[in-house]
Amino acid sequence: MKIVTIVGARPQFIKCAPVSRALRAEHEEILVHTGQHYDANMSDVFFTELAIPAPDYNLGIGSGLQGEQTGRMLAEIETVLLEEQPDMVLVYGDTNSTLAGALAAVKIHIPVAHVEAGLRSFDRSMPEEINRIVTDHVSNLLFCPTQTAVDNLAAEGITEGVHLTGDVMVDALLYNTEIAEQSSTILKDLNLVGGQYFVATVHRASNTDTEENLRNIVEAFGKIGESGNRVIFPAHPRTVKYLKEYCLYDHLPENITLTEPLPYLDMLHLMRHAKMILTDSGGVQKEAYILKVPCVTLRENTEWVETLEDGWNVLVGADGENILKMGLRQEPDVGLQVDWFGDGRSALRICKIFDVLHRSVTRSAHKSRYTLNGKNGAI
User: Fold this and answer.
1) Residue 246: inside a domain, yes or no?
2) Residue-range definition of the domain harbouring residue 28
3) 3-state SS of 183-250?
4) Catalytic positions, please?
5) How far apart are alpha carbons 255 and 223 in whole angstroms?
6) Domain count of the chain?
7) Tens of pLDDT, residues 76-125
8) pTM as predicted
9) Is residue 332 included in any domain, yes or no?
């Protein structure tokens, strides 16, 4: 089976790595990088560290307004698909690259498979939520990380082609954690002691593009430092832009150590040994949970509702007082963790589904079209 995989952002590179390893043992994969994340620290280093094959196509789209960026991706991906004529397009997550890949494929009758299907924050003011919903509703295969995701799809009338596979992020974490332990020098480089620092990430438009919110967050990070806590803050280029625009960049509290975006293994090692994580990233919330590090989420909602169930994650928005209150809890009220996200064999399950489909299609090769879980797709 010939599969075109579309990626474009840091979280997608991480998810792609274990799936790509499994797929290439049995199938032909063409890897397309949209260039949504184009900074070397947020793109190139991940391909190197995670041993992801070099992209067959790098579209170099870069940043831009939502519509402009998605539209350019859509046009460029369509050109690739017409050239490659794949049996399936595989997309990940909820970025503009995800949406563009899915739309480009479905409009020329190529089946779509969506890894991380069924997630919902139920907040349509988030661009990611729109991307998730549209992608799920045009996909033929929906690979769900949790039972909650399966239930979300069922509530929207999507039951065909749905598979509970577990979360490929667990595969990536289990595969790379010990590698990071052996290879990363980030704690030494930043003069850190395990369990005695916070890790922070902020990149969502709702936090960065509103001066009051970003100012509240930074001030709360500084007050956390009054208790002797360092906050390590790997900053997304978007965040740096607004820190400078709001005149915060040159006046950060002394306890905040601002760094460039970190390579995956360094970030993984840094998070694993942190006292607590402060973030507005969906992926980082989940990584914190799997790593058993308490998390404070700088949002009013989350698509990873499972992390809230037993106290490992709390939602505080951009409210400075709540950030401080939750960040300075002496003993976070956490319970026993549940294996919500799978056992680290999600990529193999996904590959097995493709294997079964491929055998089925091969047996019916005389047909010009096949039916995939009730939806027509072109071979």
Assistant:
1) yes
2) 2-167+342-378
3) HCCHHHHCCCCCCCEEEEECCCHHHHCCHHHHHHHHHHHHHHHHHCCEEEEECCHHHHHHHHHCCCHH
4) 203
5) 9
6) 2
7) 999 999 999 999 999 999 999 999 999 999 999 999 999 999 999 999 99
8) 0.88
9) no
